[in-house]
TrEMBL record:
<feature type="active site" description="Proton acceptor">
    <location>
        <position position="182"/>
    </location>
</feature>
<dbReference type="GO" id="GO:0000287">
    <property type="term" value="F:magnesium ion binding"/>
</dbReference>
<feature type="binding site">
    <location>
        <position position="45"/>
    </location>
    <ligand>
        <name>Mg(2+)</name>
    </ligand>
</feature>
<keyword id="KW-0963">Cytoplasm</keyword>
<dbReference type="InterPro" id="IPR003700">
    <property type="entry name" value="Pantoate_hydroxy_MeTrfase"/>
</dbReference>
<comment type="function">
    <text>Catalyzes the reversible reaction in which hydroxymethyl group from 5,10-methylenetetrahydrofolate is transferred onto alpha-ketoisovalerate to form ketopantoate.</text>
</comment>
<dbReference type="GO" id="GO:0003864">
    <property type="term" value="F:3-methyl-2-oxobutanoate hydroxymethyltransferase activity"/>
</dbReference>
<feature type="binding site">
    <location>
        <begin position="45"/>
        <end position="46"/>
    </location>
    <ligand>
        <name>3-methyl-2-oxobutanoate</name>
    </ligand>
</feature>
<keyword id="KW-0460">Magnesium</keyword>
<dbReference type="InterPro" id="IPR040442">
    <property type="entry name" value="Pyrv_kinase-like_dom_sf"/>
</dbReference>
<keyword id="KW-0808">Transferase</keyword>
<comment type="subunit">
    <text>Homodecamer; pentamer of dimers.</text>
</comment>
<feature type="binding site">
    <location>
        <position position="84"/>
    </location>
    <ligand>
        <name>3-methyl-2-oxobutanoate</name>
    </ligand>
</feature>
<dbReference type="GO" id="GO:0005737">
    <property type="term" value="C:cytoplasm"/>
</dbReference>
<dbReference type="GO" id="GO:0032259">
    <property type="term" value="P:methylation"/>
</dbReference>
<dbReference type="GO" id="GO:0008168">
    <property type="term" value="F:methyltransferase activity"/>
</dbReference>
<dbReference type="GO" id="GO:0015940">
    <property type="term" value="P:pantothenate biosynthetic process"/>
</dbReference>
């Protein structure tokens, strides 16, 4: 199997083939999702929520994500691996962004990085791209700005529409190879997907983006707490894990496990 490359994103948009992305934070799940032939794996700063139990992505650090990304890269034979630049690791300017992105490229060997923000992050995107680092943008609802945005709310409605369009244009002009669009009205995401040459990857952005991404624990039913409206849960692995471990626990207590098939002879 050939590695998915940045150029395949452009080709997929041309061909009208939807691009499929999923988060992963470890070697084990990355190997499974790679076998399922998702196009790209995102080592999201949602690791802060999923792996470290934080309430938001805000506290997630570069030092936390780098070893997770390393495991994902080791497992991904086909998928393109993208790592999130965490909050606080790129906002102060292009030099800061380049320093962080280079760490991910050298220490995790990811194939691309993602950072949040349109107009406000354009100079950072441009510097990374000029340095040979593929960049995925992320606009609309940007979780790292949760407190600034006033919570988990749909973006781009009403008067906010123009600034959203400006963000989309800025990300493309800065040289990003794709852009995540999170939680905006379907019609607006469709319009931007038409307007841009680079592919749009939607999450809570309706049916007409050039691709879709979800957080894997939401997709497979391992997440705790309420699922966002834009998720469809395809399995209940969390419940299955609880039941399996409970059965094993009972078997240990009753003496049903281990049995003679598990034991070594002298
Ligand atoms: O961190 C993350 O999981 C993300 C995706 C949901 C786009 O940024
Ligand atoms: Na993220």
């Amino acid at each position: 199997t050939k590695r998915v490359r940045v150029r395949h994103f452009a080709q997929a948009k041309q061909a009208g083939t939807k691009i499929v992305g999923l988060t992963s934070y470890d070697f084990l799940t990355a190997g499974l999702f790679d076998q399922a032939e998702v196009d790209f794996l995102l080592v999201g700063d949602s690791a802060g929520n999923v792996v470290f139990g934080y309430d938001t992505t805000v506290p997630t650090t570069t030092d936390e994500l780098i070893p997770l990304a390393r495991g994902v890269v080791r497992a991904a034979k086909r998928a393109l691996v993208v790592a999130d630049l965490p909050f606080g690791s790129y906002e102060s300017g292009p030099d800061d962004a380049l320093h962080t992105a280079v760490r991910f490229m050298k220490e995790s060997e990811v194939h691309a990085v993602k950072l949040e923000g349109g107009v406000r992050s354009a100079a950072q995107i441009e510097r990374l791209v000029q340095s040979g680092i593929p960049v995925m943008g992320h606009i609309g609802y940007t979780p790292q700005s949760e407190h600034g945005l006033g919570g988990h709310v749909v973006q781009g409605r009403g008067d906010a529409r123009e600034s959203f369009l400006a963000d989309a244009k800025a990300v493309e002009a800065a040289g990003a190879f794709a852009v995540v669009i999170e939680m905006v009205p379907e019609a607006l995401a469709a319009e931007v997907s038409q307007m841009l040459t680079i592919p749009t990857i939607g999450i809570g952005a309706g049916r007409h983006t050039d691709g879709q991404i979800l957080v894997w624990t939401d997709l497979l039913g391992v997440a705790t707490g309420r699922l966002p409206r834009f998720v469809r849960q395809y399995a209940s692995l969390g419940q299955e894990m609880i039941e399996s471990v409970s059965t094993w626990r009972d078997d240990v207590r009753s003496g049903a496990f281990p049995d003679e098939s598990h034991v070594f002879e002298d």
